[in-house]
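Entry 14. Ran structure prediction on the chain below.
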Amino acid sequence: MGNKQSWVIPLLAALVVACVGWWADRQLRVVMQEELTDDLQTMLEADVTALEIWMGNQKKTAEVLAEEPRLRNLALELLSKGAAQATNQPTVPMLARQLFIGDRVQERMAKLGYTIAQLVNTNYEVVFDSGRRRSRVGTQVAEELQPKFAELFASGEPIIITPFKMQAPERPGLPERPGQFGRPGGRGRPGPGVRAGAGAPTNTTIPPALTVMQVAAPLKDTNGVTQGAFALVVNPDAEFTRILSVARSGQSGETFAFDPEGVMISKSRFEEQAKQLGLLEDSAGGSTALALHLTDPGGDLTKGYKPGNTNAYRPLIEMVQRAIEGGTGIEVQPFRDYRGVSVIGAWMWLPHYGFGVGTKI
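Output, structure tokens:
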């Protein structure tokens, strides 16, 4: 009996110690997951709040400029002439000079970070462009952007147009290329996921498109009827991308914005690495914005993983797919990001703006 007790007691003690250790480890993991969840939630909310405040300020600025009596009156006169008349009548250049130079609108725009202003009528025609590329006058806003301008014309409220590609007008003798002003380029993708290595044909003689945003405010007559839009071109790298980096953590920490097709619309923190890993299309012009498809490569590319079939279909990374499908969430079980690096993350879909924001660490 004594011999039996001599080994039973240590065995029971070992079992108790093991159970306590298992319970303590489980509790520690629960606490760590709760802390990670809180950290991710805090970072995501900080970035989204900062972004929404900035976008709200952009709309207020455009609205204040559009409501200045002299600017509004001159703009309404230009809008009433229409694009066809605006390019032919000698009075139009004089009106434009009054509008943007005489009233120092261009100077104020520059101080606020805007480089180009445009007037768009309710037929979606650009009737005036303050930039150097006068050939934009008379062109139509792209079909992809027209719903946002239609929203402005119907509601009489300012709008934000998320980043798109703006290509310089084509030089004589060169074929038309998607991405010309009003023709967003680099966003399309046939359904969720993308074929690895897929890219648009390149033409090195054509300069790369610029990634821009727009904020537009209504131009209303004395009866309060919207006659057109005062649109300002915004450089998204100057503010949009920078604001998304307000809060980030660790070597893989990053907050980014993406469209309904899973394409990054902000600039990646890992842009140089993305180029080295071959994640950008040849036609991207060196920028990840509107060129980086947020798909799962199947392994860690930073550690030398090479996909077996470069033409294979790649699904969207988990956080992006779930944001597009279901709105807001947090995942503390590791998954691969677009470089194949193991991360955890949180995401939020912003339906009013039509894009999502994700934070990963």
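The chain has a mean pLDDT of 78. Will compare against last week's run tomorrow.
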